Amino acid sequence: MSAIEFYWTETGRAEYRAKDSRLDCIGMWLVGDVQADHSTCLDLLADLDDIANGRKETESWEGNAWAAELSAQGVDLQNLWRDALSAHYTLAETRRIADQYWRLLAGEPERGPALARWEERNGRRHPYPGL
To answer: Which runs of E-coded beta strand occur in 1-129?
Structure first.
């Protein structure tokens, strides 16, 4: 098992388990705010890639329970309901973990169609090469 792992529960909900409690915030953010939505996960991967490659400087996300600030310096997460739940992750680490989550959400054969829908909706090719 890697430091964080994503899986489907018996009830069909995405969930995570982390060996390192430092990764709990990113796990909670992905399964709780990104949820099992292909398009939202692709949006996140695109933002991370755009920032990593200098096409964007920053991006802000706010969901049901988390606020996220993305920049070249990394990703800062803050839970909207519990101040004690906050964390900072490097951009590379966030990209790697978000990619793991994407692979859970969009297994074959749905990965290709989900990507095609994202590209049509956004009018551009998805920038993340790891898809």
So the answer is: 4-8, 14-18, 58-62, 66-71, 74-79, 86-89
Q: Tally Cβ neighbours within 10 Å of residue 53.
A: 11
CA distances from 10 to 3, 28, 67, 103 (A): 22, 18, 29, 18
Express each pLDDT in 17-28 by its tens digit: 999 999 999 999
Q: What are φ and ψ of residue 74, in 5° steps?
A: 135, -165
Q: Which long-range contacts (CB under 8 A, 24 or more apart) does 104-108 make?
A: 104/6, 104/7, 104/8, 104/14, 105/14, 105/36, 105/37, 105/38, 105/41, 106/38, 106/41
**pTM of the predicted protein model:** 0.94
